[in-house]
Design brief:
The chain crosses the membrane at residues 6-31, 43-63. The protein contains two helices and no strands. By secondary structure, the chain is mostly helical.
Length: 66
């Protein structure tokens, strides 16, 4: 039961990645000023959020295995 909060954190991390990705793709599809201003920043945030999600996932697997 001690891994339950970590699982919820993993779900939250994945949802954050999904929201950032959807916002970035939506901005790219619409183009215009928003994409020029925030497109690269959103994709950098997505990469950082994915790295955090992978780290949480590996920590979750490590705790579950031991």
């Amino acid at each position: 039961m001690h891994d339950k909060p970590l699982f919820y954190l993993l779900v939250i991390c994945c949802l954050v990645v999904l929201v950032i990705l959807a916002t970035g793709i939506g901005g790219f599809a619409r183009g215009g000023e928003f994409n020029r201003k925030h497109g690269n920043r959103l994709m950098r945030w997505r990469i950082i959020a994915q790295a955090v999600a992978i780290a949480v996932f590996l920590l979750y697997l490590w705790i579950r295995s031991g």
